[in-house]
Amino acid sequence: MQSKDHDQQGSSYANVGWYDREIREQPESLARLLDRGWSAIEEASKRIRAFDPRFVVVAARGTSDNAARYAQYLLGIRNGWSVALAAPSIVTRYDAPLRLSGALVVGISQSGQSPDVVEMIRRARTAGALTLAVVNDGSSKLAEAAELCIPVLAGEERAVAATKTYVGELCAIAMLSTELATDPSRRRELDVLPDRISTCLEAQAELAERAQAYMRADRFVILGRGYNLSTAFETALKIKETSYVIAEPYSGADFLHGPIAMLDRRLPVLAYSLCDRWTEETLHLIGRAQKQNAPVIAVSDQEAVLQEADLPIRLPPETPEWVSPMVAIVPGQLWAGALAAKRRAAPDAPRGLSKVTETW
Question: Helices 164-181 and 325-342: crossing angle, nearest 10°?
Fold first, then answer.
């Protein structure tokens, strides 16, 4: 049953409700984490330094799996670890022994309830790993199973399609990386994130109107590289679960190795391109897509990229690339919400889904 507050939403968000509200709560929830979350981060960092892990394994599902992709890049680039994404069924379905001595094993979850992620953390701990939970519910089964816990402090999230908990997970991972690297300048780059997200929300107020030409598309390709591969995957997930529209995420590099052949005028490309590291490659991809008559939507802070796109979506300039996924995901979340409204779908409660998904 729809909540009273949900029913009172304006007509343009008649089918959005809590999903839209929670997108707009992200600056506040991130500010809370950055204000209150450092003690847990400092405790976890102290234990991790003493343990001195040889490598990192991250276990997650769904939206949290996309946060794990961010961790894979961030902890690899900024902290020098090899980071693997776990396959929990190795322990839950195959009962395989784990050789994780000397590993840091991180479970990321909004609810902390999915049995496969919880079991992966339990088995890892038994196998000699140091275990850490990054979770919104600090009293959850995942938090109990792990030796260390970082609550993301996002507050209750009522929409099934996660938004503020995802950004909270990214921020918690970024805070941990920063504390482990002991680089004070990075704290300052984190502190301005709530304002940058607020600026992005204000700038995208008319996104649904600007994107009308694409609102009837029934499939999309979503591209990202580096830190924002996570953004491409999370945007695709949001589109699929809120709007029931096919959205396929790719690394821009992998896309050139075959999938680009499927492009045509009926298949829009939504490309993330943050910082000048990716400008040349993105321009090449845009050129290839347009030769095949595929429309290109670019989410970028690079003027050269925005000028070539059929629909440019401008992000706040000079956002450091390592924190940019927390800003870049906002247009993706809003895009998914606009598609859902157009199709009279309900991001608060997509068909066939519930807030806590239990998998084995």
Answer: 170
